[in-house]
Amino acid sequence: MVRWRPRHVHRLTMSLTENGADYYNIRQLDPSSLAADLRAARFLYLNRHCFNGVYRTNRRGFFNVPRGKHVGSLPDSEELIAFSKLIRNAEIKAGDFAELLTQVRADDFVYLDPPYAGRGVRDRGEYGPSSFRADDIDRLYDAVTQASDKGAKILLSYADLPIIRSRFSSWDITTIEVARNVSGFAKDRGTARELLLKNYD
Questions:
Q1: The model's pTM
Q2: Closest CA to 41 of 68, 62, 16
Q3: What is the pLDDT of residue 127?
Q4: 87-115 burial string, b = 16+ CB within 10 Å, else e?
């Protein structure tokens, strides 16, 4: 909807009020019961007013992130229009990463940023229950290896975990320190080690 009707989505989003009670009323709406334009406005509103911009669902698939105290501002109309132009010719797909990776070809560039999983990594429920587990790391490795064998250039970012270093030991691995905003509070900011893994020079 932002691709084709950015001004309309902006107007609908701006019409939603920002107080706490309204946030929870909007959150509890079943998106499948809404028209596409209202669903887009609801998604944008919840993303900018929820805690830390987190996307998380319960086991029934319903968005369940509480309202944030220091919420992000809604993009203005011009920002949505500019974004709509950027994605005008994009093909946006939703699906399992392994299936999507079968579609890559030689010289494609693929960037992956999967949810972190593995021993000692807490499952916070982002992206839905059981969306990416430790068992999926092997599936990830197999899928990116097959895409790599086709000649695709692949960049993967992931937590610095022994299992990732072991699986991707033949890849180019760079360790980086990234800022973390734990619990959404500035005083809890810290850094964490992450890996950038790539199959190209």
A1: 0.73
A2: 16
A3: 52
A4: eeeeeeeeeeeeeebeebeeeeebebebb
At 191 the pLDDT is 79
At 99, the amino acid letter reads: E
Which residues of the chain register pLDDT less than 50? 123, 125, 182-183
Q: What is the pLDDT of residue 76?
A: 92
pLDDT value for 54: 84
Task: Give me the pLDDT at residue 50, please.
Answer: 93
pLDDT tens track for 71-81: 778 899 999 99
Q: Sheet of 172-181: strands edge to edge?
A: 109-112, 153-159, 189-198, 172-181
DSSP secondary structure of the chain: -TTT-HHHHHHHHHTS--SHHHHHHHHTS-GGGS-HHHHHHHHHHHHHHBGGG--BB-TTS-B-PPBPSSPPPPPPHHHHHHHHHHTTT-----S-HHHHHTT--TT-EEEE-PPP-STT-----BTSTTSS-TTHHHHHHHHHHHHHHTT-EEEEEEE--HHHHHHTTTSEEEEEEEEEEGGG-GGGEEEEEEEEEES--
Residue carrying the six token digits 């899928």:
143
Domains parsed from the chain with CATH numbers? 6-86 (1.10.1020.10), 97-198 (3.40.50.150)
